[in-house]
């Protein structure tokens, strides 16, 4: 999987994060080299990231980032008709945002390694109800060709376990063809049977054509 460096601004749009939600503890699950945690901390917010890749060590991650950025850009160029640029404005602006986010991540993980947990779904090293908001970007559903419905159910159940608020997952389409995940409706039925409340919500962000909704999940009151 490609390690991406998405920015704080992208996260706010992808997950429709309001100012009030920045007052709680936020977990970026599958954070990769995102700048979200670093930029949130600079604003006084409390955020953590989890990703099994953090176990590789900072130097290995940094060596990998340039190749992954180039690979991601090549994939976009090869499938140009599947992307829209309204939110970014131009490829150059997107690239600058990613490079700035990568720099923020690299500096922050060296300075505050305790904010980056070397763990991956469907197991998180956190207590029940220990964070206010869980964000999961471009992992679930994006990689549905690799992870089946059972894995998705276990992953969402685990994120819901550690959250005392809401879990937000974006996007709801597969990588590559951009098509909706065929098991999403059945998965939501299973999650509701498990006592979780699920809803699809439009967000003010679209890059993959048609990928403008997130899934929200919370425990039933």
UniProtKB/TrEMBL annotation:
Q: Which SUPFAM superfamilies match?
A: S-adenosyl-L-methionine-dependent methyltransferases
| Descriptive protein name | Class I SAM-dependent methyltransferase
UniProt cross-references to InterPro entries, sorted A to Z: SAM-dependent_MTases_sf
